[in-house]
Amino acid sequence: KAGVTQTPRYLIKTRGQQVTLSCSPISGHRSVSWYQQTPGQGLQFLFEYFSETQRNKGNFPGRFSGRQFSNSRSEMNVSTLELGDSALYLCASSSTGSDSYEQYFGPGTRLTVT
Amino acid sequence: AQSVTQLGSHVSVSEGALVLLRCNYSSSVPPYLFWYVQYPNQGLQLLLKYTTGATLVKGINGFEAEFKKSETSFHLTKPSAHMSDAAEYFCAVSGASGGSYIPTFGRGTSLIVHP
To answer: Which residues of B fall within a CB distance of 8 Å from A106?
Structure first.
């Protein structure tokens, strides 16, 4: 099976702009989670989508949003970018079987805000 | 509620030496425990997991971990370090708390392997 793919891999944006990141899960996986990884805060959970519905949400401001499509592909959007949003954004997918708590990660999108 | 503590942000070993990365967890429900590895500019890759059953879990690349409920620990070991093991390692805990299996990750331990 193909793994989790994320596009783009690298992105440079200016403060105040908005950005959309994309994630394609492993075929058959219906859950997609997003994480922000920074040196200072480590891995922080943003949100999880399952069957096009947000199922769990982390403690991030409303500038961070996401959605999931009927084919399980997911996008996350960050509006009004701040310098502190510079991070590696990781997407992870899970199946709905007994190992649904095991997550498979994509390579990430490195976002730099200048 | 659940949490993970990884002792030591950096661990340095010589090639061929024992690798020991420490992880302690806190969970209000029976935990599922994971170790992930992250190489530079890559995502996280699952090394091994404990869900139920045998408490000694073997993973990829010669790593193993032992679930010790009494000590709330899940330490990662490898008998002989290779240069290719140099990476960031993350311990994670998950459990059916409030219907959510979202894992909580530790802050990570950077493994440095000296020739």
So the answer is: 43
The whole-number pLDDT of residue A95 equals: 82
- How many angstroms separate the CA of residue B81 from the nearest CA in chain A? 25
Q: What is the pLDDT of residues B43-75, one digit of tens each?
A: 999 999 998 888 899 999 999 999 999 999 999
Alpha-carbon distance B32 to B29, whole Å? 9
Averaged over B92-99, what is the pLDDT?
73
Using the beta-carbon criterion (under 8 Å), do A45 and B102 form an inter-chain contact?
yes
Alpha helices (runs of H) in A30-113, residue ranges in sequence order: none
Q: How far is B57 from chain A (nearest CA, A)?
A: 15
Do B49 and A102 lie within an 8 Å CB cutoff? yes
- Cα–Cα distance, B68 to B46 (Å, whole number): 20
Check CB contact of B3 with chain A, cutoff 8 Å: no
pLDDT digits (tens, 9 = 90+) for A36-89: 999 888 999 999 999 899 988 999 999 999 999 999 999 999 999 999 999 999
What's the token pair of residue B113? 């392997």
Structure tokens at A11: 């992105």
Query: Which residues have C-beta within 8 Å of that of residue A42, sequence separation ≥ 6?
Result: B105, B106, B107, B108
Report the DSSP beta bridge partners of residue B48.
B35
Q: Which residues of A touch B (CB under 8 A)?
A: 4, 6, 33, 42-43, 45, 48, 55-56, 90, 92, 94, 99-108, 110
